[in-house]
Design brief:
single chain, globular
Length: about 80
Amino acid sequence: MPSKSASDHRVLVVGVGDDGPAGLSPAILARVAQAQLMVGGHRHLDLFPEVSAERLAIVGSLDEVITQIDRATVHQRVVVL
């Protein structure tokens, strides 16, 4: 069975450091730009104002956030910051 490339996966988890988007590779920035749903804390979501994806802020119950991510992956490319 052929292995999947990173671009085949519907959920990408991106670690964003203190340097923000500047610390990410061009390939990862391109994947973030293609997101249809971005999930993260308000501070992280605010680092990518140019991305037109729907945004889901992580506040409150992580169970609910995980449920929403799971539902979204059926039809959307999801980036979790």
